[in-house]
Amino acid sequence: MFGWLRREQAAKEEPAHRSIATPEHIVWRNDASMPIPDWPRVPWPDPADASAHDAHANGLAAAWLDALAPHLAGSRRRESADFMLLSTLDARAAATLLAYLDKSLKRLLHILPGIATREGHGKSVVLVFDSDEDYYRYVSNYGAASSHDKPEAFSGGMFIDAGYGHFVFPAGNFDQMEPVVVHELTHCLVRHLPIPAWLNEGLAVNSQERFCPRPPRYRAVERQYLFGQFWNKTTIQEFWSGKSFLRADDGQALSYELARLLVQQLDSNYDLLARYCRAAHQDDGGAAAAESVLGLGLGELAGTVLGAGNWEPDPSRWSEGTEGGQFTR
Fold first, then answer.
1. Which listed residue, of 25, 49, 78, 272, carries a Cα 20 to 30 Å from 245's Cα?
2. What is the model's pTM?
3. Which domains can be identified in the chain, with CATH numbers?
4. Could you give the CA distance from residue 122 to residue 218 in angstroms, rounded to a whole number?
């Protein structure tokens, strides 16, 4: 039996929440290396009572993080109006990060109206790990590869959409954490939409670049050459299904770049983009919604970036299924 099932509690950093939730009310996974709730088996109140639902969710999250803290040496739970943070950051650094999270949330809701929403459960949970080892030890409980498995497993952070959706990343200097925060928070705010991976990641990358501009990954000439070498009638199907974002070669970075450019194209008419996001579904890569909402095929949209070619999605060729985005990066 795993030692953490003793459900030890770290000293709380915040007043008790108005909720009956305690570690004893949580059903814990018995296959995890540290305390992780078995969310499908955790009781929740009637979501129609939003106030009680949020209070209960916050109590569950607090009990979960307090049980997790002893397994991440030096970690403490701190909170803001909309976030619950578990980290080893000192009080000043944690306050700075929480303030940035609150600011980013407001900005994302402002720039993505009709797409992003806070609806769901209580405060957004953020875990910042003191070491890569702790980070990978935690995410391995969700089936994510450890850093020792293969080179492509290294990531700067991820949104984990499992039960109580939360995002995680290793600690770094603030400049390193800023883009990760915006990227993963975007995923958190669009988790209610069944959109395809390319649209999900395109929204996240464009939000990240809007808040935290960085030098472009590719020069225009270089990008045109690499696109010409990589994208063809086979690889474009991987893009629409989302599988190309999981590639272990340059195809992964080129997928993020193509997604960024396609969403950038759509963003020229934001109202249309918002309608498209609400209608698009990963099962067909967003193809039907493109025809009905945008009035054009996805192949035509891709052609505005890739040039003439056979770019239309063909779900009959997606034998490995589809992806919804929110990948490790």
1. 272
2. 0.84
3. 3-189 (3.40.30.160), 197-317 (no CATH)
4. 39
